[in-house]
Design a protein that fits this description.
The chain is of the alpha/beta class. The protein has helices at residues 34-46, 67-77, 91-105, 128-153, 172-177, 179-198, 218-221, 226-229, 237-248, 269-275; strands spanning 25-29, 49-54, 80-85, 110-113, 159-163, 204-210, 265-268.
């Protein structure tokens, strides 16, 4: 871990970094907007190298941002960026992204499994194409990107796989509410659980991160009533700061940053940031009182 003098800070939010991602190379699935872009931007402010593989090469009619505009934002923030148009469901695209990251930046230190599809329909209403989409992106995509990056990660002195997926909460409530989506997100979490055990002697840390509350994203804002819903949400900056704390080891009380002793955890953003010294989360909200924020699912 580097000293705080080397870490970029954002005075608008309470998290004070104690480590830096400067010079580290991050390979992220998705990330052209939303939480993924926020995580990448926070890393870029440290001077990280970020490889973003996302499907959005052309502007979306309803959602702002492409992989190329994301790269421009990352470079403006102080990082180096390599934008790649690719689909995490496609083996060739993922293999090419891993190879491009190694060729451009000399290796891979961090994989962020950010790409995810969501459909909260109940079983009798879910379209099987949507079911397959969630399984392919969420579960298979997470497994594939992690798998193909392993040779490069094993060569890093600070290797980490971070997946945006929830704790494995076996309360039947969640499976009963939206079984197809629960299966897909828990598949991502099982990948964390399994890889952490499999790689525990390889120096590769594997963890998941999940928000305690609803997070303001363009996708939610475009839902019916989304503009009102997000008023009871937090901004994506809280996940960006929490991811930064995990990847730099700022939430650990002992042990080297990014070491494999910090592995197999299902963190929430609040848990990580409290351990990193944050006690007031109000600056992350869009204005609603803390007790009025919408809790996230699976918790």
């Amino acid at each position: 871990m580097t000293s705080s003098n080397d870490a970029s800070a954002n005075p608008a939010f309470p998290y004070q970094a104690r480590g830096s991602l400067k010079g580290r190379t991050i390979l992220m699935s998705g990330g052209s907007r939303g939480i993924g872009l926020a995580i990448a931007t926070r890393a870029a402010r440290d001077g990280a190298n970020i490889v973003i593989m996302a499907k959005t090469g052309e502007p979306h009619p309803k959602l702002q941002g492409t992989v190329f505009t994301a790269a421009e934002q990352l470079e403006a923030a102080g990082g180096q960026a390599l934008p790649l148009v690719g689909d995490v469901r496609n083996d060739g695209d993922v293999a090419a992204a891993v190879a491009a990251a190694v060729e451009r930046f000399g290796g891979i230190d961090v994989v962020v499994n950010n790409a995810s599809a969501i459909d909260l329909s109940r079983t009798d209403a879910i379209d099987m194409k949507r079911y397959d989409l969630m399984q392919d992106i969420n579960v298979r995509g997470t497994f594939l990107l992690s798998k193909l990056a392993l040779p490069a990660l094993r060569k890093s002195s600070n290797a980490h796989i971070l997946t945006l997926s929830p704790p494995l909460n076996l309360d039947p409530k969640w499976a009963g509410m939206h079984l197809a989506y629960t299966l897909a997100k828990y598949g991502m979490s099982l990948t964390t659980l399994g890889l952490a055990e499999e790689l525990k002697n390889d120096g590769v840390a594997v963890n998941s991160l999940w928000p305690c509350t609803l997070i303001d994203t363009a996708a939610i804002r475009n839902m019916p009533g989304g503009a009102q819903i997000v008023q009871a949400a937090r901004g994506s900056e809280i996940m960006a700061d929490a991811a930064h704390a995990v990847l730099t080891g700022a939430h650990l009380t002992a042990g080297p940053a990014g070491s494999a002793t910090n592995t197999g955890n299902f963190y929430t953003d609040e848990q990580v940031l409290r351990a990193a010294g944050v006690s007031d989360f109000r600056p992350y909200s869009l204005g609603a009182p803390e007790e009025k924020l919408v809790p996230d699912i699976f918790l």
